[in-house]
Amino acid sequence: MKLNGPAFGFAVLFATSRLFAAEPPDDIHALKEWLREVSLSGSVRGGYWSSSRDLDDRRHLAVASVWLKATSKLGSNASFLVEGWVGNPGLFREDETIGALREAYLKASLGPLDLSFGREIIPWGRADRINPTDNLTPKDFSLLVPDDDDQRLGTFAIKGSYYLTGLSLTVVWLPEFKSDTIPIKRPPPLFRLHEQERGWDLGQWAIKVEQTEKRVDWSLSFFDGLDRFPDLGIGSISPSRVKLRLRNHRIQVIGADAATVLGRYGLRGEVAFTFTENSGEGPEVKNPFFFMVAGGDRTFFEHLNVNIQYLLRVVTPYRSPFNIPDPVQREVALQQATQTNQLDRVQHGASLRVSDKWFNETLEGEAVAVIFFTRGDYAIRPKLTYAFTDRWKGTIGADLFRGPDRSFFGNLRDNSTAFIELRWSF
For labelling alongside 240, which of 103, 163, 307, 324 has CA 20 to 30 A away? Predict the structure, then answer.
C-alpha cells in the first residue's frame, strides 16, 4: 500500500508556493512585507535504517528526503497552508522514489466561526500517543521516519468550528478516503493479496463538542465513515489459488476524552466504542470493540517527564478465530485477528514514556514502551536527538518488537530496526 504520485504532489506544492509569492517586489520595504506574509520552511534529511517497516526482507536502507511547508496570509482573516515531501527509502534506486502532498487547505476565521477547506490532517484525542478517537485521517506505518507525527497524512475535508465561551462545536465532512498503510507479511505461494482501492465516499462525517480553558478540558465525539485500518479476508478460493483482499469497512465511533491538572500531575483519559459491520459471526471484519486509555504524567527536576497509561481493549461480541474448523479460513482469520489486535476478548496493557533534556536542551532523550499483558507482547523505542546548531540535528534510535508470533507486537518482530538520521532545517 505504497503512496504514488510524488511528482504530482510536489508540482502542486511548488506551484502553490509560487502563487503565494507571485513576483517578489523590487524595493526593500515591499520585500520585507512580502517575506512577512509568505513563510517557506522545510528540511533535508538523510539516514540509515537497519530494516524496513514493511515486514519484508529489505535490510540496511539508506534513506533521503526533502520536506517542504509553505504558509501565507490571505488578507486579515484567512490563510493557506501546503506541505509535502518526496524521498527515496532505497537510495540511488529511481523506482523507489515516493512522496506525498500531506496538506493543502484554506482556512478562514469569521468571528466565532473557523472554516477550513482542502486536504488537512485532523488529529483527535487527549491521551498520550495512543488515541482511540483518532479515526479521521490516515497514517503510513511503513514510512521510515523517527517521528510518529510524520507518518500522518491528510485527506480532503470541509471543517467548521464554532466557538462560544470555553466551548466549541466542530463538524467535519470527509468526502475523500485514504486507508492506513500497514505492514503485512508476504503470503505463501498459493495466496495472492489484493488491495481494494477507495478514493471517495461522500457519507463520511464527524462531530465533536469540546470544552477548553477550564479546570477540566473534555470532548465528546462521533465519527461515521470508513475504517482507516483495513481488514484481511478471503476474496475467493480456487483449486490453485486463494485470493486474499484488504478492505476498509464502515464503522461508527462514539468517543470521549478529558484532561486536567492536579498539583504537579497531569491526568488524562480517552475512551471509544467502535461499531463495525460485524456482529461477531464473520472473521473477515473487525468485531465491535471498546478501547480505553487512562493515565498521567509528572515532571521531575527541570525536564525529566514520566508518563504512565493503562490500556484496556474489550471485543464484544467475540468469536475465537482458533475455533474455526476450516484450516484455510482459520489461518486467514488468525492473521486478521493478529494484525487488528483482536485475538482475545479482553486485553490489559500499559504504556510508559520517559523523556529528559540535557546540555542547555541541545540533547533530548526519550524511551517509550507499550506492553499487552494478555500475551506478553511489547514494543520499545529509545531515541536520542542532538541539536548541533539551530539548523542541524541528528537522531539515533531503535524500534524493538517482541512477543509470541500470534500477538500484535510479536507479529511485527521483523520490523525491529535501528536508525540514524541527520537533518538540516530551514
Answer: 324
Q: End-to-end distance of the chain based on CA atoms, in angstroms?
A: 31
Residue bearing cell 483449486: 239
The torsion region of residue 410 among left (phi > 0), alpha (psi -120 to 50) and beta comes to: alpha
**Which strands make up the sheet holding 231-237, listed edge to edge?**
191-195, 242-247, 231-237
Answer yes or no: is pLDDT of 69 > 80: yes
Which cell goes with 303? 525536564
**Domains defined along the chain, listed by start:** 6-425 (2.40.160.10)
Q: Which three cell numbers stand for residue 255?
A: 468517543
Q: Is 250 within 8 Å of 223 (Cβ atoms)?
A: no
Asked whether the beta carbons of 388 and 367 are under 8 A apart, the reply is: no
Rg (CA), the chain: 23
Q: How many Å apart are CA 50 and CA 419, to the nearest integer?
A: 6
pLDDT one-digit tens code per residue, 237-277: 888 899 999 999 999 999 999 999 999 999 999 999 999 99
Q: Which helix (H) or strand (E) element contains residue 78?
A: strand 78-88
pTM confidence score: 0.90
Distance CA 31, CA 55 (A): 50
Q: Which three cell numbers stand for residue 362?
A: 541541545
* Grid cell digits, residue 373: 499483558
